[in-house]
Amino acid sequence: MIRHELRSRSSMNTQAKSTAPVANIAQALIRLMRPEQWTKNVFVLLPILFGHKLGVTVVPPALLAFACFCLLSSAIYCINDVFDAPADRLHPRKRLRPVASGVVGPSTAIAFAILLFVLAFSLSFLLPVRFRWIACVYVANNFGYFLLFKRLVILDVLIVAIGFVLRILAGCAAVSIVASSWIIVCGFSLAMLLGFGKRRLELTADRVTPAYRHALESYDEAKLDTLMAITSSLCLMSYMLYTVSPETVARHQTDNLVYSVPIVAYGIFRFLFKVREGGHDGPDELLLKDPVFSLIVLVWLIMVAAILAWPHFG
């Protein structure tokens, strides 16, 4: 009886040991995908709100486009982590990333990235061909970023901002609408503000060695504060001009979008204050963990949706 019980316990322990590494690898691969970064792909969904098409028919292709970009961005993160592993090991937190810490090998990360690319482009065949072309440009833009441009001051942020514009263009292509010049300008200026805000947080909160990110050698707090002041002004001004533009009024059949400007202004100014305070890993963490920002976004979305829908149902 005792021997049987000991054999049972031994087999249970062996089974637990054999399943533990599989579970750990699965968790590491999920971490490698960085699902917390998928919030950036919300830019793909903006055409639902600001396109001239309204109705439930635009929602499925927009959500499919969002899913494609989540897979694409995760695939790019996998490859990026392989290239960045030596530098990440110099970082106090990023050294714990799956590839940098050795939990996931480089070959496994590359194979997983290829799988994600295949899944993303397979889904893209359910969308217009223009979407796939933009997705290809988005991938090329990201490869250019982590192979070259991330080491070049200012260009590093501009390339990231272009990536956000490509998300907007892809969202427009998915629902078969033409992107207005205003949504491109507003999206690009907002992305630049977020990009320079990220550099400011990296510089002040992490205090990492310049070997971690070469572009940080050319940045300092004064320069980044100036760049953030310029881009925040550009962001707010472009949004204000967008709301009163004759093109916007004609497209949406309303001139009431201007009443959403104070909410946007408050959000931008609060972002500047919070970046100066530091203590966050990046803009995504700052925006998600601050309940006031969540309230600002919610109020803005409800207000804009109501303003745009009123001419059609009023």
Helix content: over 70%
Radius of gyration: 22 Å
Number of strands: 0
> Helix/strand/pairing class, anyone?
mainly alpha
What is the terminal separation in angstroms?
Answer: 79 Å
Measured by DSSP, the beta-strand proportion falls in under 5%
Largest sheet: none
Report the average pLDDT across residues: 84
List the helices and strands in order.
HHHHHHHHHHHHH
How many helices in DSSP terms?
13
Task: Name the poorly predicted regions.
Answer: 9-20
Shape: globular
Which helices and strands, and how do they pair?
Layout: H1 2-33, H2 46-50, H3 59-88, H4 98-101, H5 106-124, H6 129-147, H7 155-174, H8 181-206, H9 221-244, H10 246-252, H11 261-277, H12 283-289, H13 291-313
